[in-house]
Amino acid sequence: MKIDQIFQARERIAPYALTTPLIPLERLEDSLGFVPWVKLENLQNMGAFKIRGAMNAVLSLSSDDRQKGLITASSGNHGRAVALAAHQLGVPAMIVLPNTVLKLKRDEIEKLGAKTMLVEPQERLDIAKQIAKDEGFTMIHPFDDEDVIAGQGTIGLEILDQLPEVQNVFVPMGGGGLIAGIASAIKLLNPAVKVVGMEPAAVPKFTKNINNEIPVAVPDKPSIADALLSNKPGRRPLELVQKYVDDIISVEEDFLKDGYRLLIEQGRIVAEPSSAITFGALLQGALDHYHLANSVFVISGGNISLPDIARILK
Question: Which of 11, 77, 158, 305 is the most exposed place for a label (fewest CB within 10 A)?
Fold first, then answer.
């Protein structure tokens, strides 16, 4: 990954993705003992950071490849981003979703005109790839794609612009596209900044694969962090994580839920549970050895209904 790829992605996606706010969440100072900075990707018009990578990947395709139609596998947000890109560019899209997907996420994808298919969660990528092969669709991988990674890396450029004195950046980890992009951007421009990833202890795919050249699937358990449940890292994200990420933290489910409650009830940030995993790591005590002034917590998405928030927090 070269920094020019990320700068080019920023220019390419500028008409489609917002430069999201980075704000000090002062209302959490009494609870945490410091003021966390939050990067509010939940305020993207489609509700999550995924528009950055998906749009960069789709705009990087040839016109012929776009016209074949787009297909992807997703827990919801990447699928919605691909559906939105297809809608804006006037091409068909098929989104392969887990049968556990939140209704709100599926409904929003279908409103954009994309077709959806529900499958077992850990089968969705293989099924999408097979459909692409059989029916001629162009596959937009949710995380194991350099154009997707470069698009997500534009968040890193914005953080450095918005908070030049940043010391740490804490990032949720699913398949790895988000942290691979952010870490690449930050470390190529300011190597002194620490980049730390958080994943559910229920699916510790990076923790288990960090010394592997070829990623392997790990056993998975249920988690409220529905956007982080891929059970195998992408190969390219794993390489970039190994090169640029300073630490990986597995967050236990009880602390993840406590972090979510903190973000919703005290932080008053409407976000998905996956976005709160960084605060879960904080409550778990995993960040006690970090100097936390000027630390950025990436809020990755906010596509969740009020009934689902209430159900998760009850």
Answer: 11
